[in-house]
Amino acid sequence: MTSYEADLYFYLLKECNSRNWTNPFELPTRDVEYALSISRKTICDLRNKLQQKGLISFKEGNKRGGSAIYTIVYVTCGNISGNINGNINGNISGNINGNTIIKNKTKTKNIGGDNSDELFPPEPPPKKKPPKTKVEFIPPTVEEVREHFRGKLPDWELQADIFYNHFSGLGWKTVTGAKVERWDSRANLWIIEKKQQGNGKTEPQGQNGRDADKAAKARNLIAEYAAIEQGCDAVGHQAEIPDL
């Protein structure tokens, strides 16, 4: 039975009870429309369904013949006094006025427990991201530096040694004192800088002049880095560096 059918049925019971259970009884359709706030067509459909369920019978009224006539089948066939299910006052399921029983369901929200049966369970708290472990810097070997420089510059082997001596002499720190975190990135910057210097400078005339210029600069740089690392004067040790 739908809620609308129950509303109409209990309303007919109330009207029958107000007439001292006079059965059958007349009831204008306009009164039902006003009381239940439903249309005449809906009332016709509902009472047909109640009649099919064997709860009531009715005779349609007309303008000349008067109002519709209803008969409560349970009252007539069961107990003329209107007692249903042992209730002497004619209450049906504890409601004599025909009002549908409204059950208030209050659900206690389980905070912090299992809410899997809820329609919209609360979102779990966001997980904390584990702290990032800082990778310890491991200085490269000279062989690793040479392998990184291989083929990227015309004098790649020489530049690899200069790069290694430069940063190892500084304790793998920059000139500003910041620690080097990725030596390969520093090596790439070194290679780019050397390529730009090679593209922008004017080469000396002849192959011998170019070789002599490179050898002289290399000796000076290596002497300076050796002096930084050993803490002595670069000029005093320049004679110990073999020709390249």
If you had to describe this structure to a student in words, what would you say it looks like?
This protein is mainly alpha-helical. 43% of the residues lie in helices and 5% in strands. It is built from eight helices and three strands, in the order αβααββααααα. The protein has helices at residues 3-18, 29-36, 40-52, 73-77, 142-149, 156-169, 183-200, 207-230; strands at 25-27, 56-59, 68-72. A hairpin with an 8-residue loop joins strand 2 (56-59) and strand 3. Helix 1 packs across helix 3 (40-52) and helix 5 (142-149) packs across helix 6. The model is unreliable at 75-80, 90-94, 202-206 and 232-244 (pLDDT under 50).
Per DSSP, what share of the residues sits in E-state strands of 2 or more residues? Answer: under 5%
Q: Biggest sheet, strands in spatial order?
A: 1-3-2
Helix/strand/pairing class, anyone?
A: mainly alpha
- Work out the radius of gyration: 51 Å
Parts with pLDDT < 50 across at least 5 consecutive residues? 75-80, 90-94, 202-206, 232-244
Q: What's the average pLDDT? A: 74
Q: Level of helix content?
A: 40-55%
Number of strands: 3
Number of helices: 8
Q: Using the alpha-carbon principal axes, give the shape.
A: rod-shaped
